[in-house]
Predict the structure.
Amino acid sequence: MKNGIKKTQHSNYQNEKSKENKLVKETNESLTDNPMNGLPKGHYRFFVGCNLNFETELVKELREASPFFLELDGRRHQHLLNFEVQQGGVEFTAPLHIGLQVNFFSKLANRVLVRCAQKRIKDFPAFYQWIQKQRKQGLLQSFSADHRFCFEVSASQSRLNHEKRLIEIMEEHFKRDDEAEQKIFLRVFNDDAILSIDSTGLLLHKRSQKEVGKAPLRETLAAFCFRKIMGDRNPSEIKEIVLVDPMCGSGTLLKEAANYLQPQLDREYSFLKWHQCPKILKSPSLAGNYEKFPSLFLGLRGFDIENSVLKIAHENLVPQSDVKVNQGLKTDLSVILTKMDLKNPFSEEDKAKFLGNPIWIMCNVPYGERIQTDLNINEIVQRISGKFKPIRMGLLMSDKQWGELESSVKKGIESETVFSNGGLKVHWVVWDYFFSDFR
Ligand SMILES: C[S@@+](CC[C@H](N)C(=O)[O-])C[C@H]1O[C@@H](n2cnc3c(N)ncnc32)[C@H](O)[C@@H]1O
């Protein structure tokens, strides 16, 4: 069902809701010296971490996705959330069941932390007492004494600058295991200590069932590139567009386009094991309650010179139909993957097959480092333009390549973002061809 749930399920959810309310109430009442205690009842403070320079786009994504989140009774979430940009992430306040759903929906986020407590602390005895207290309240109290936690501790510009000592104190209250799935984060900065619990587990770029090719692009980066090429376009404006990746590798860019605003439900999340996890988020019928977002494009086309990576792209993009349903992937999207050398011109038959509709290009070009190519960046752009005549194009290229290209194709640039791809400085540049130099 779209906006609600079946009647029989409804009463279950009502029960769950009242139990959940009770639990949230109990949990909240025990958060006595939590500086987050100015929060409305049952609300928590969330921190959604992302790559540097992705923060503003993450806010846009969360604004778009949050109306698809579910309330405890299965209806769609209707409240506006107030997102605050921080370096490397976004903070907001929400009820537990709402904030946790960011894990399902965000394609840009790396992880979602729930803030447990925050306090100005300047000496170790006060820190000891504070940690001791936090262990017995809020979300942390429900973990048994022998539950294992992995610690992420950082301290800077503070009197408590001694990370080793902070860890020793934490170890007195939390069983430490560097392999444990459940992480707790302590950050001390400017004498301000923040204790958070990780709700995500394995980082969010780990999508389900993903096969990787050579030099695959991290999914969060691919999702960012896709959002930037979408710009402010309304999904209804791009129904007639075919999205093409002429050097698609394992198909990461196309897959992120296909899964736009689809919840990622078939993977593990740490919060699903929490005592306080709202039951609706664990329900086997959860996927059916989320509204399906319609396919954005007329079709997706992927090309690559290598058969081996196309096979992987096929696994990633054209899964069995039952898998599609489980993963919440769209089943109505036309995906065609074809072996092609960008250097060779299209045959008349290919032209009839692949051209005809307006085309957008998204491409992560070989940087000539891990993946070699005999085409330089100017040639790549010329071949893509000549072959596909796109009306819009986004290219991900190395700093060096952008330096070689920039001066010749300045017109028509709609956006340019610099970020790090596996430690290499890269540029994602989007052109609107109508205004560009290489029409
Ligand atoms: C950086 S990788 C793309 C990675 C991809 N975004 C992914 O996540 O898997 C570049 C791809 O360009 C392909 N390639 C190199 N030269 C090519 C050519 N002349 N024609 C078509 N594809 C080519 C390589 O096989 C490689 O898969």
User: Anything to note?
Assistant: Residues 213-217, 247, 249-250, 252-253, 304-306, 309, 341-343, 364, 366, 371, 373, 375 surround S-adenosylmethionine (CB under 6 Å). The chain has two domains: 43-198, 219-260+296-438.
